[in-house]
């Protein structure tokens, strides 16, 4: 077998096992197996199924797939258990790669529409409304990636802890289901936080989440980032956007609007995927590039291409393109820094002052 054939086989194997793992996370099967089985007293499919409120035959097939993938353990009499390492990796949000696997089933739902978008005479792209499940899974991935570091490391890095502690108005653009907005609102209760997103579904979830958490210094609005309310000019002390500029139809208009609504002297922080704006350099220097280009193909590029005047950036637009648009929006080149935080190893932070 050639190296290419081995690589193709490995990709095929992973493509099939990833949604099996996603099923386990979605249905609580890993939690059930972890609670019931051990090396000293392994468990069977029936017990796991009862614990997770699932059908035994389906659970048996799920357990079999993971055992043959060497991800869980099996005995000669077909009983199952998880090693301590496996329990840790599959528990909660401990492993970012496990959280990412939830994207696989959410992405392939748009496969046929994406085929049409590829064609010269096909649709321009895909609509945000086609990704309701995507936002739920994105929320899981975001929590896995940012929960530990957002308040403890990210805000000190961008120098906003002392500013936010004393109050001020904050805008979270492309807020999705509200995770970052709510973290800011709870960590800095003297602030007033606005979260905006173009997706009705995402904003609905965000509002529900805020109500459940009883957070009263936050408002979520449905809004196009390229056309924010006219009366917001020079309003916000701090504007942030997390991995949500590249998939705008017009990221240039989004950045121009952010510049407009930011107070003079205010700070804008944009977290984006780390990229160079060169596919060749990405390919040879960034281990995450293949994954992000592939993810972009199923979501970021098509939603960012779904209009005749769209810029069609994609997730890996990279530092050169991002800098160009930031400066065209009005930010002075001397007031733009690009940070490479070790705690967010596949992201860059664009820190801009008006």
TrEMBL record:
Domain Methyltransferase: 166-280
Domain S-adenosylmethionine-dependent methyltransferase Rv2258c-like winged HTH: 17-81
InterPro entries linked to this entry: Methyltranfer_dom, SAM-dependent_MTases_sf, WH-like_DNA-bd_sf, WH_DNA-bd_sf, WHD_Rv2258c
Signal peptide: none
Pfam families for the chain: Methyltransf_31, WHD_Rv2258c
PANTHER family reported for this sequence: METHYLTRANSFERASE DOMAIN-CONTAINING PROTEIN, PROTEIN CBG10435
Annotated protein name in UniProt: Methyltransferase
Organism this protein belongs to: Pristionchus pacificus (Parasitic nematode worm)
Lineage of the organism: Eukaryota, Metazoa, Ecdysozoa, Nematoda, Chromadorea
Gene transcribed to yield this protein: WBGene00105975
């Amino acid at each position: 077998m050639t190296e290419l054939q081995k690589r193709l086989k490995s990709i095929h194997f992973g493509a099939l096992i990833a949604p099996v793992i996603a099923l386990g996370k979605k249905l609580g099967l890993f939690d059930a197996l972890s609670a019931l089985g051990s090396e000293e007293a392994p468990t069977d499919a029936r017990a796991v199924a009862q614990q997770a409120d699932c059908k035994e035959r389906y659970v048996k097939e799920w357990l079999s797939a993971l055992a043959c993938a060497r991800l869980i353990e099996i005995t000669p009499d077909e009983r199952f258990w998880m090693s301590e390492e496996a329990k840790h990796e599959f528990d909660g949000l401990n492993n970012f790669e496990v959280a990412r696997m939830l994207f696989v089933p959410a992405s392939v739902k748009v496969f046929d529409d994406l085929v049409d978008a590829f064609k010269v005479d096909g649709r321009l792209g895909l609509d945000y409304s086609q990704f309701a499940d995507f936002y739920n899974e994105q929320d899981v991935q975001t929590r896995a990636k940012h929960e530990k570091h957002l308040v403890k490391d990210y805000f000190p890095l961008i120098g906003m802890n002392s500013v936010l502690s004393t109050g001020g108005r904050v805008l979270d653009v492309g807020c999705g289901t509200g995770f970052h907005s709510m973290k800011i609102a709870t960590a800095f209760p003297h602030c007033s936080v606005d979260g905006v997103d173009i997706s009705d579904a995402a904003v609905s979830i965000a509002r529900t989440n805020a109500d459940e958490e009883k957070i009263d210094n936050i408002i979520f609005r449905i809004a196009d980032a390229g056309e924010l309310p006219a009366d917001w000019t020079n309003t916000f002390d701090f504007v942030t956007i997390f991995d949500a500029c590249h998939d705008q139809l017009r990221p240039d208009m989004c950045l121009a609007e952010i510049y407009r609504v930011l107070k003079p002297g205010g700070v804008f922080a944009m977290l984006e995927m780390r990229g160079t704006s060169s596919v060749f350099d990405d390919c040879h220097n960034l281990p995450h590039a293949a994954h992000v280009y592939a993810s972009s193909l199923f979501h970021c590029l098509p939603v960012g291409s779904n209009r005749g005047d769209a810029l069609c950036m994609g997730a890996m637009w990279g530092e050169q393109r991002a800098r160009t648009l930031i400066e065209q929006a009005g930010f002075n080149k001397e007031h733009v820094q690009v940070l490479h935080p070790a705690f967010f190893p596949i992201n860059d932070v664009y820190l801009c002052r008006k």
